[in-house]
Design goal:
A two-stranded antiparallel ribbon has the order 1-2. It is built from two helices and two strands, in the order E-E-H-H. By secondary structure, it is α+β, with helices and mostly antiparallel strands. It is elongated and about 60 Å long. The protein has one domain. The model has no long low-confidence stretch (mean pLDDT 85). It has helices spanning 35-51, 60-78; strands at residues 14-19, 25-30. Helix 1 packs across helix 2. A hairpin with a 5-residue loop joins strand 1 and strand 2 (25-30).
């Protein structure tokens, strides 16, 4: 991938306030999955669904590689 940071920001980050053992409030950040991983998961879902009825089902490695190719292109287009 040309830009190693492309899509590495969190897709579904979550922040909540928690009280520590001293009674002070502090923010807890749960970053969630990256935008790249989320896009690849949705691309993978589509690839699997589109090949499910075919006689020659793609192997898992091919599906994973293609999914990230689609995700990377999607993220490149988002940044145009």
């Amino acid at each position: 991938m040309e830009n190693e940071k492309l899509g590495q920001e969190p897709a579904f980050s979550f922040v909540y306030e928690k009280e520590n053992i001293y009674g002070d409030k502090e923010n807890v950040v749960i970053p969630g999955m990256s935008k790249r991983f989320y896009a690849a998961c949705t691309a993978m879902q589509g690839l699997i669904a589109s090949t499910a009825s075919e006689d020659s089902f793609l192997n898992p490695k091919d599906i994973a590689e293609r999914s990230f190719e689609f995700a990377d292109e999607l993220l490149k287009q988002e940044n145009l």
